């Protein structure tokens, strides 16, 4: 088991379920790795492109480091007054827009690839 799995397993309830779901989605892609940085899970392919930020209210923000470069066609991403990062805050596993999350991850990986050229 790695440090990110340990991190997730030490969470409780809905937050644990959200983190596990998002982690599983991110790790489906080839060459994606994860590591605890700044005390939260970060994900990398060529560059660090995403992180999962658990909130005190039990929600989890899935944030993208190059979020401003994403199209946000789904209308889910919020910059929250940040210059580069955008994210989507999820509160319950049964309310996750699964297809939209997958589309955002795929686009973030394409942006990550383009920025590495």
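Q: What amino acid sequence fits the structure above?
A:
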């Amino acid at each position: 088991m790695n440090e990110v799995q340990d991190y997730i397993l030490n969470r409780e309830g809905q937050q644990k379920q959200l983190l596990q779901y998002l982690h599983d989605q991110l790790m489906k892609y080839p060459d994606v790795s994860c590591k605890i940085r700044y005390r939260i899970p970060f994900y990398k392919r060529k560059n660090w492109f995403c992180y999962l930020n658990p909130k005190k209210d039990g929600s989890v923000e899935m944030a993208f480091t190059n979020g401003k470069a994403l199209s946000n066609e789904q209308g889910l991403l919020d910059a929250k007054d940040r210059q580069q990062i955008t994210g989507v805050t999820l509160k319950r596993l049964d309310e996750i827009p699964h297809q939209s999350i997958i589309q955002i991850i795929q686009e973030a990986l394409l942006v990550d690839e383009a920025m590495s050229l």
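Q: And what stands out in the fold?
A: The first helix runs from residue 3 to 9.
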